[in-house]
Amino acid sequence: NLITPEEVKQQSVYRIQSGGIYNIKEGQYVTEKNAIAVYTKNPVTLNITGNITGSEKVALITAQQEDADLTIQSNANYTVSAGNADVFTNGSGTARINGGIYEATTDTAAPVIGNVCGGVLSVRNATIRVTGTKDSGQAITNSDSTLNIYDGTVIDNGPMAEYDCIANGIVNLYGGTIT
Hints:
Blueprint: E1 2-3, H1 5-11, E2 14-16, E3 20-24, E4 27-29, E5 36-38, E6 44-48, E7 52-54, E8 61-63, E9 69-73, E10 79-81, E11 88-90, E12 94-98, E13 101-104, E14 113-115, E15 120-124, E16 127-130, E17 140-141, E18 146-149, E19 154-156, E20 166-167, E21 170-173, E22 177-178
Parallel strand pairs: 1-3, 2-5, 3-6, 4-7, 5-8, 6-9, 7-10, 8-11, 9-12, 10-13, 11-14, 12-15, 13-16, 14-17, 15-18, 16-19, 17-20, 18-21, 19-22
């Protein structure tokens, strides 16, 4: 399955309603709603196949389904940027981010990654960073959830270093760097 910017723009939201492997093509995914939304409990893998830019105002990828099982994979360390919005928001499901660079300005207090509603997020060999200059936002908001950080992971609050890099929830650190 191939997800393209043209398809997302045409549909407004690309809804994933069945498990499987989906390749996300390089490009700009600018929509008024969340660009890619997962609505299934079956395992979904999103392979990032190039640099991606999301909207300035809404999350690029969301796990909407309760108990979703999602892996975001970037074997070539592509950059996924979302301006002032979340790159990824996980609800009550289980999500994994393996490889890649995920960044947002967070100038409107939206985090780069949102892990909320009791979700479990594991991050391996990835960089999650804040690039903005205003006094708001975190790299990861972990509300009522669990965050597992493994080797090779860098979580960088950038210019917001005096603020919490990770807010709330349970954080298990098995390796990686937090700055």
